[in-house]
């Protein structure tokens, strides 16, 4: 069983950004710009996690 690496500051910032963006989507579910920003944040976090755990 391998240990889970500690998140970096950059990863934590992206995690908080995703939470904020998803909350914005909840507040404005029909706003495509808000949805696009949330999608971009999720994709950035996904990429970060893929490169740091690979």
In the residues, how many domains can be counted? 1
Please report which band the strand proportion falls in: under 5%, 5-15%, 15-25%, 25-35%, 35-45% or over 45%. Answer: under 5%
Point out poorly predicted stretches.
none
Order of helices and strands: HH
- Please give the number of β-strands: 0
User: Fraction of residues in helices?
Assistant: over 70%
Largest sheet, described in full?
Answer: none
First and last CA, distance: 15 Å
- Tally the helices: 2
Mean pLDDT across residues? 91
For the CA atoms, what is the radius of gyration?
13 Å
The class by helix and strand makeup works out as mainly alpha
3D shape: elongated
Give a description of the structure.
With 54 residues, this protein is mainly alpha-helical. It has one domain. It contains two helices and no strands. Helix 1 runs antiparallel to helix 2 (32-53). The chain starts with 8 loop residues before the first helix and ends with a helix.
Main attributes of the structure:
0% strand; mainly alpha; 54 residues; elongated
Provide a short characterization of the protein structure:
The chain has 54 residues and is an all-alpha fold. The chain is 76% helix and 0% strand.
Question: Secondary-structure blueprint of this entry?
Answer:
Layout: H1 9-27, H2 32-53
Helix pairs in contact: 1-2
């Amino acid at each position: 069983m391998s240990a889970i690496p500690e998140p970096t500051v950059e990863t934590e910032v992206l995690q908080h950004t995703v939470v904020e963006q998803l909350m914005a989507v909840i507040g404005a579910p029909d706003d495509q710009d808000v949805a696009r920003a949330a999608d971009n944040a999720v994709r950035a976090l996904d990429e970060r996690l893929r490169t740091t755990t690979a």
